[in-house]
Specification:
Length: 245
């Protein structure tokens, strides 16, 4: 089966519909499938439920879909960097299901593994556990969490071959590998598209069996969500400490 498509719009052709659930890889702005997000935006689909660690920032990443009001519900663990997200949520325009980050990751992993639910200590006795089954194991309380499985997953990889085998680079690996397994259809954008056999078998993070479509998107701008630098030490006045003037 031919998996490589000429552009992101073509790679998503026939897959998008109103009200669907979409998993979107990335953490902050690291490893996000930016070209595929832009193609979702251009399609005009609405009422989306989006599963993502966060919602990007204003005007970048999933922030683009918030601006166009295409997202009805977010399943996330952190959204603190997006003012439009906060505005829509506080105005009652956007539904959100918050998850502890480890719980979100395991819900996705479990979905990809075919596990319908699991028990975790995280959230017991808090709002996270409200309305959920709590059970005792070995004298400890655990809350039951349902797994997540999407209609579509969009992921970003550093290198992929034409058979769909993917390798992620450093922290851009984040949520991408688990999301690639947890959807009916997964579409990957790759910075470097190579021939089969080029990626060493031990370096393959996502086997090609999980990937249905691929689009080659050469590396673009690498954005930094929050630039943090060390404050420059104040220079000593000339001649201080006996040094040369």
């Amino acid at each position: 089966m031919k998996k490589v498509h000429p552009d992101a719009t073509d790679a998503l052709a026939g897959l998008l519909r109103d009200g669907m659930t979409v998993m979107c890889g990335g953490f902050g702005l690291c490893g996000i499938p930016d070209a595929l997000i832009e193609a979702v935006r251009a399609s005009g689909v609405k009422g989306l439920t989006v599963v993502s660690n966060n919602a990007g920032i204003d005007g970048v990443g999933l922030g683009k879909l918030l601006e166009t009001r295409q997202v009805a519900r977010m399943i996330s663990s952190y959204v603190g960097e997006n003012r439009e997200f906060a505005r829509q949520f506080l105005a009652g325009e956007l539904e959100i299901e918050f998850n502890p980050q480890g719980t979100l990751a395991e819900r996705i992993r479990a979905g990809g593994a075919g596990v319908p639910a699991f028990f975790t200590k995280t959230g017991v006795g808090t709002k996270v556990a409200e309305g959920k089954e709590v059970r005792e194991f070995d004298g400890e309380q655990y809350v039951m969490e349902r797994s997540l499985f999407a209609d579509l997953a969009i992921v970003h990889a550093h290198t992929g071959d034409t058979e769909g085998n993917l390798r992620y680079r450093k922290t851009a690996r984040n949520f991408n590998p688990m999301m690639a397994t947890a959807a009916r259809v997964t579409v990957a954008e790759v910075e470097n598209l190579v021939a089969p056999g080029t990626i060493d078998a031990d370096d393959i993070h996502t086997p090609g069996i999980f990937i249905k479509r691929i689009v080659h998107v050469p590396a673009g701008e690498k954005r930094i969500e929050q630039r943090t630098v060390r404050k420059r030490a104040e220079a000593a006045p000339a001649g201080a400490g006996g040094g040369p003037v």
